[in-house]
């Protein structure tokens, strides 16, 4: 990970430090030109299994990539949506990079890039599928009910909200301590420096998320992503959460 982070095409340590001391929006504006050369971009090893699972559930008409960044999830939506694919993000810099790297093959769905806050989406119920990759750490737990309500409001009845979620790291493992350490550093940073940079991934727990989605008016199902392996107990290392908009809350 460190080798990829500090690769020649990626950001320097100084650039990352400046980003980390900015707001979320401005930090990603700064990182945008080199974002695709960092480990923060969702890798193809995750995108491909999600694409496979969504193809089995689709096809879909219109799709939205929530917090799209430079467009990794847009590539997934183009494979499963027939009419329109929209990316929404708060960072103008990330959207600009996404537009610049866009290539539209023949007979592809129409592509749109929209700058907006995911907590106040500027759409009506026009989408059949909403996806998101790696963005939920930027929302505090208290913001999630409102975020999920926003997603429901832009889905047509029966529309789906899909995102991968990894199983929690085993307590005491290297991954566990790495995440715990990162979370602690971010909390200290935000206690000492303003504006805050919200990036807390440990509170995004499957049991809490399922309950919050149900309260927001979704019926939730889980789909294993076997391509990403299994834990020692046989359970999948990663699942695709598929939340379907119910007719009434």
TrEMBL record:
GO-annotated molecular function: methyltransferase activity
Keyword Methyltransferase assigned: yes
Keywords: Methyltransferase, Transferase
This protein's name: Methyltransferase
UniProt keyword Transcription present: no
Source domain of life: Bacteria
Gene3D superfamilies the UniProt entry points to: Vaccinia Virus protein VP39
Entry-linked PANTHER family: 2-METHOXY-6-POLYPRENYL-1,4-BENZOQUINOL METHYLASE, MITOCHONDRIAL, METHYLTRANSFERASE
Domain Methyltransferase: 64-159
């Amino acid at each position: 990970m460190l080798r990829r982070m500090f690769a020649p095409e990626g950001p320097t340590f100084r650039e990352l430090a400046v980003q980390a001391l900015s707001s979320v929006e401005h930090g990603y504006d700064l990182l945008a030109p080199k974002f695709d050369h960092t480990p923060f971009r969702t890798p193809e090893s995750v995108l491909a299994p999600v694409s496979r699972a969504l193809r089995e559930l689709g096809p879909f008409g219109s799709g939205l990539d929530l917090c799209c960044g430079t467009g990794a999830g847009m590539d997934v939506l183009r494979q499963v949506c027939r009419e329109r694919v929209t990316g929404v993000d708060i960072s103008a810099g990330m959207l600009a990079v996404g537009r610049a790297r866009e290539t539209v093959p023949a007979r592809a769905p129409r592509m749109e890039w929209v700058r907006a806050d995911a907590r106040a989406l500027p759409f009506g119920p026009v989408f059949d599928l909403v996806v998101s990759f790696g963005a939920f750490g930027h929302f505090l737990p208290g913001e999630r009910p409102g975020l999920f309500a926003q997603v429901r409001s832009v889905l047509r009845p029966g529309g789906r909200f899909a995102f991968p979620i990894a199983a929690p790291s085993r307590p005491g493992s290297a991954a566990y301590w790495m995440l715990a350490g990162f979370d602690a550093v971010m909390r200290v940073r935000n206690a000492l420096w303003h504006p805050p940079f919200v990036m807390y991934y440990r509170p995004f727990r499957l049991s809490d998320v399922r309950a919050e989605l149900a309260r927001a008016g979704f019926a939730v199902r889980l789909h294993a992503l076997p391509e990403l392996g299994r834990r020692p107990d046989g359970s999948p290392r990663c699942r695709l959460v598929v939340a379907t908009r119910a007719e009434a809350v």
